[in-house]
């Protein structure tokens, strides 16, 4: 989504912004190595994708893992690009278009600043609350947005499930959009009078410069556990990437979960920097936290608790999402809102009023006599949190249907298998976005983890590679009062096989399996 109003930015201004390390060249002016005078060239928008170029755009030709954006410079020029931003490697193909070319050593590193410049620094003109962490980013962002709405703001939301601009819903393909799209989105939000935005900040975004040129009024940290080790070299580097969000260029204030060991390390790191004030929260009774959730009463559909904060604040609160981890998410949102200037009672009211988050601990009803849940847990920490939470609210048997994605962090597969086999009574291992891999090989790695649980403590493990078959199996075996959780896809609507996405909706398949069973039972 882009603003309707076109920007008019002279390219000469960009050359000044980027300073002496940027070369501006224009073959048509006979200038190959000297800084050219980009003269009358005017930029009216920006994109990193040749397929999305609009006339007047600056096309950012970025080096990628599969291609170099410069490979598509001719296509961008044909679509009306006014100039190209690239690195020395992409220069030849960019210059061949005869458009002005801005060459910098690392275009991703400046892309956020450049995109913010193109759109007139829109993020600086709204309240921005960014949330990072391995788990809880989407949930906290939904809760924060609800709090901002309760405070009377027209809101924006940016995250994995969807983006929202005022009341309008926009599909989302990444958790955190690329910098060019992000600043365009902020500008479009301003045009619609959005005054406050809640957004998710992934570690990919921090590593790939997607949030450059964006300063968060409040940056929130939920937790860190193993994930994305296909992208980050190890847990330490993953943590350090997340920690970037809490440095002065990115955050004005930090809100950090003290119950998480990486959260405590982050508190020390930010405090040592001495530039970003930190406020902490705990839902597990840490007396050192600035804000605490006490007297937590867990229920099958949500929790009630008391919020205790600085200056004698103490008030009743609730969250309509089950599990202790959602009390933690609610605290993250409440404290984030308070640090953003929302009165605490409004923050508490907004969080309590939030509707469920699509595909997160979502109950599915078809008249069955057991509890059926769809949840987006697709990493060891989330599987553990979800199974522990569901165990607390059921006397019956707990079954999980779970797989693990192909072409992504392989080291988490045995950990997911182990967590499922340790914490559930029954596990059905199945397929989940195999991409280019053999689903049985992925399941094999999960089985390795499951086998580490001692026999007497291990859940009954069944393998059914066909996901619909696996869901039906779990449904057919469920007894009254049991819980079946279908993990991994949550709000997603497809199964990724090779480069194709085949329609697959866990909620629909689960509903259908339960209806079929009821029909069979009725005779
Ligand atoms: C690992 C990663 O994040 N990769 C991102 C990266 O892709 P890449 O380096 O492979 O790009 P490439 O395909 O080689 O293309 C190079 C350049 O050519 C451009 N291009 C390519 C083809 C074309 O026809 N025209 C064109 O202009 C591309 O836009 C790109 O700028 O740059 C692309 C756009 O510039 C992103 O779309 C792509 O995200 C892919 C789709 C992705 O799946 N990313 C995931 C892992 C991700 O970012 N996830 C996090 C959330 C993680 C979490 O769950 O916490 C997220 O924030 O979404
Ligand atoms: N605070 C938390 N601690 C542990 N697990 C959580 C927490 N919050 C949510 N989860 C689990 O993680 C799943 C994903 O939650 P959510 O979408 O809010 O997190 P996320 O950080 O946005 O995830 P992702 O990066 O995978 O998009 C939930 O469905 C739930 O199983």
From TrEMBL:
The organism's taxonomic lineage, starting at the top: Bacteria, Bacillati, Actinomycetota, Actinomycetes, Streptosporangiales
Entry's localization field: Cytoplasm
GO molecular function: UDP-N-acetylmuramoylalanyl-D-glutamate-2,6-diaminopimelate ligase activity
Name by which UniProt lists this protein: UDP-N-acetylmuramoyl-L-alanyl-D-glutamate--2,6-diaminopimelate ligase
Positions annotated to bind ATP: 133-139
Post-translational modification: Carboxylation is probably crucial for Mg(2+) binding and, consequently, for the gamma-phosphate positioning of ATP.
Binding-site residues, meso-2,6-diaminopimelate: 408, 432-435, 488, 492
Pathway: Cell wall biogenesis; peptidoglycan biosynthesis
Binding site for UDP-N-acetyl-alpha-D-muramoyl-L-alanyl-D-glutamate: 50, 175-176, 202, 210
Gene symbol of the encoding locus: murE
């Amino acid at each position: 989504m882009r603003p309707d109003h076109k920007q008019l930015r002279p390219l000469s201004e960009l050359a000044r912004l980027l300073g002496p390390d940027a070369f501006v060249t224009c073959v048509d002016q006979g200038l190959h190595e000297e800084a050219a005078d980009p003269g009358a060239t005017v930029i009216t928008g920006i994109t990193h994708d040749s397929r999305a170029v609009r006339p007047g755009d600056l096309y950012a030709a970025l080096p990628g893992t599969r291609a170099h954006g410069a490979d598509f410079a001719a296509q961008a020029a044909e679509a009306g690009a006014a100039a190209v931003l690239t690195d020395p490697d992409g220069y030849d193909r960019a210059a061949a278009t005869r458009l002005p070319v801005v060459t910098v050593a690392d275009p991703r590193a400046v892309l956020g600043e450049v995109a913010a410049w193109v759109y007139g620094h829109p993020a600086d003109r709204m309240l921005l609350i960014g949330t990072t962490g391995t788990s809880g980013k989407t949930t906290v962002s939904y809760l924060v947005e609800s709090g901002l709405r309760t405070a009377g703001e027209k809101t924006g939301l940016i995250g994995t499930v969807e983006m929202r601009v005022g009341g309008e819903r926009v599909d989302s393909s990444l958790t955190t959009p690329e910098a060019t799209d992000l600043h365009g989105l902020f500008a479009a939000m301003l045009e619609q009078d959005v005054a406050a935005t809640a957004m998710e900040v992934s570690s990919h975004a921090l590593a790939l410069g997607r949030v450059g040129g964006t300063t968060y009024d409040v940056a929130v940290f939920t937790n860190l556990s193993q994930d994305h080790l296909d992208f980050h070299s190890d847990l330490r580097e993953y943590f350090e990437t997340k920690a970037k969000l809490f440095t002065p260029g990115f955050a004005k204030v930090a809100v950090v979960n003290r119950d998480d060991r990486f959260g405590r390390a982050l508190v020390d790191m930010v405090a040592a920097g001495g530039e970003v004030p930190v406020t902490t929260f705990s839902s597990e009774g840490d007396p050192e936290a600035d804000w605490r959730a006490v007297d937590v009463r867990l229920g099958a559909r949500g929790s009630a608790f008391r919020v205790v904060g600085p200056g004698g604040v103490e008030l009743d609160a609730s969250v309509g999402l089950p599990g202790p981890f959602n009390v933690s998410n609610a605290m993250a949102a409440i404290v984030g809102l308070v640090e953003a200037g929302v009165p605490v009672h409004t923050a508490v009211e907004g969080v309590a009023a939030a509707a469920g988050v699509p595909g997160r601990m979502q109950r599915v009803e078809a008249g069955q006599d057991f509890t059926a849940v769809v949840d987006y847990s697709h990493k060891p920490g989330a599987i553990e949190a979800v199974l522990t939470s569901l165990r607390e609210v059921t006397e019956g048997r707990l079954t999980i249907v779970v797989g693990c994605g192909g072409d992504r962090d392989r080291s988490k597969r045995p950990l997911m298998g182990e967590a499922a086999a340790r914490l559930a009574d029954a596990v059905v291992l199945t397929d989940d976005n195999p991409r280019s891999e053999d689903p049985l090989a992925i399941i094999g790695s999960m089985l390795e983890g499951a086998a580490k649980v001692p026999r007497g403590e291990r859940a009954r493990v069944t393998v059914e590679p066909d996901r619909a078959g696996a869901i039906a199996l779990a449904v057919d075996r469920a007894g009254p009062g049991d819980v079946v959780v279908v993990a991994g896809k949550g709000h997603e609507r497809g199964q990724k096989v090779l480069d194709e996405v085949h329609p697959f909706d866990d909620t629909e398949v689960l509903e259908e399996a339960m209806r079929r069973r009821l029909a069979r039972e009725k005779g």
